Amino acid sequence: MSSEDLSLENSNYNFSFESIFVVLTLSIYLLLDFAPVLNSIDVAGFQWLTMSILNVGIGYFVFHFIKSENLKELRTFKVNNIIILYSIFLFFSGISIFYAPNFSEAILTFNRLILIAFLVFTLKLFSQIKIFFLPNLSIAISIIAFFQSFIAFTSFISKVNEAPLNEIYNILTQNSGNINIFSATLVFKIPFILYGIHYFTGIKKVFFSLTFILVSIILFLTLSRTSIISLLIVSVCFIIASLVKKNNLINTFIVLIGLFIAFGFQTKYLKYLPKKGVIEVYMSDAESDETSGRMYLWKNTIEIIKNSPFLGTGLGSYKIESIPYESKQRTTWSISKYSHNDFLQTASETGIINGLIYLSLFLIIAWKSFKILIKKSTESDTSLNTYIELEKINPKKIIYTENIAVCYYQLKKYNFAIPYLKKVIDSKIFKNGKSEYIIAACYHYMKQSELACNYAQMALNNNYIPKDCKEIMIKNCTK
Where is the protein found, in the record's own terms (predicted)? Predict the structure, then answer.
């Protein structure tokens, strides 16, 4: 019997008020996907307005709860290089308002940057807590993804034999306004769904599996190559990680079945609808209408940058500055609102320097993410350091003490875990026998049979009777 065999029931980390508060707050932001369009010309307009209202409400509650003991950890805010760079980016963007050709459009665009800044600030503030809330967050996100994809799926099935492909795509976009944006919102949720498949068991695992299949079907039906490739990359990474742990082969099977079903649905419902076959859609060359159209937009944006490389043409000015170029390339009265390249558009509106600052934000975030991936420390290492810091801030909160003990146990540092577990027992707050059971397990691996037997008996007396506790009794109390 190894330490991994001992069942701690996926509840090693107790969910506190902090984690629930953070999960609910982030879930409210994610519900913006369901904000109504209200027949507006700009689909995103009402969503930005809703986000503004949410920011005010969430800001009030965050700063209100900071005063309480429950969110004591939020009282300190650590500034990092990402926050500094984004502040500099906002500064240069704000200056460009004063020479923008359309002042109202510049103010509108800057207001949206401020809203994003507030969201970044909120996320950074929540990261101060670093409570183990990922399981709860994955449940919330997956529920949203399930309803989002279920609505799209039922709408698609009801119209697939009646409406042309472009109308079906309008149905799939829901409130996103664009099929690519809609599929991107689903791709964002995929890692959380896969985490749920990995973490949970029983009916919850079934729910996450069904959600993954449903989301995969919708992504394949959108024919969005970027989103489908992203789905496949994330899935392959998950499969590799599952194969490394040979006891997780069921997860690999779930993902493969989900992708197979999704491709099957795509083949059944779409192969006669586009002019090209399903496989040909992905094999189309780089000179497709969509791709070549974007190349024109990027070339136009580069020309705008050349005209004003250092200061830019002013925030929100792309719609105006692109007209002289697009008027020669289009046969309709419509123009592009965006250049479909945020980095080029930022450089054209606020200058090359600010464009590089904006680009560096993404590079730094990508580098930090990569460092996290290659970091040798385990999740228990990271959580252990977090809980040790939290216990220093609030030593009377026994939940942190118990989680420190669990982290030490998972790291097989049994000598360190036992004192914290005894502190939990002495507090008499948790009288469920779990701490006694973990101490018994620690002594079992330390080959101290008598102590292992005593604490296993104490756990049984408190009605904590997992099968592993009885196994410890058999192996140690009979010696």
Answer: Membrane
For residue 366, the surrounding DSSP H or E stretch is helix 352-374
Q: Reduced to 3 states, what is the DSSP secondary structure of residue 321? A: helix
Nearest partner of 10 among 466, 470, 471, judged by Cα: 466
pTM for the whole structure: 0.64
32 vs 152: CA distance, rounded Å: 16
Calpha distance 172→182 (Å, rounded): 8
Query: Can you list the domains of the chain with their CATH numbers?
Result: 381-477 (1.25.40.10)
Range 387-407 average pLDDT: 66
Interatomic CA distance for residues 251 and 421, integer angstroms: 33
Q: Distances from the Cα of 181 to the Cαs of 43, 187, 219, 340, 363, in angstroms?
A: 12, 10, 11, 12, 22
Question: Residue 437: enclosing H or E segment and its boundaries?
Answer: helix 434-445
* Confidence check: pLDDT of 172 > 80: no
Contacts of 475 (CB under 8 A, 6+ apart): 1, 444, 449
Q: What is the C-alpha separation between 199 and 139, in angstroms, rounded?
A: 11
- The answer to whether residue 151 scores a pLDDT higher than 70 is yes
In this structure, which long-range contacts are made by residues 161-168, counting pairs with CB atoms below 8 Å and at least 24 apart in sequence? 164/273, 165/270, 165/273, 165/274, 168/273
- At residue 357, does pLDDT exceed 90? yes
Model confidence at 73: pLDDT above 60: no
Residue 466 phi/psi, 5° resolution? -75, 160
Q: pLDDT tens digits for 366-379?
A: 888 777 655 544 55
DSSP 167-224: HHHHHHHTTSSSHHHHHHHHHHHHHHHHHHHHH--HHHHHHHHHHHHHHHHHHHHHT-
pLDDT at position 1, please?
42
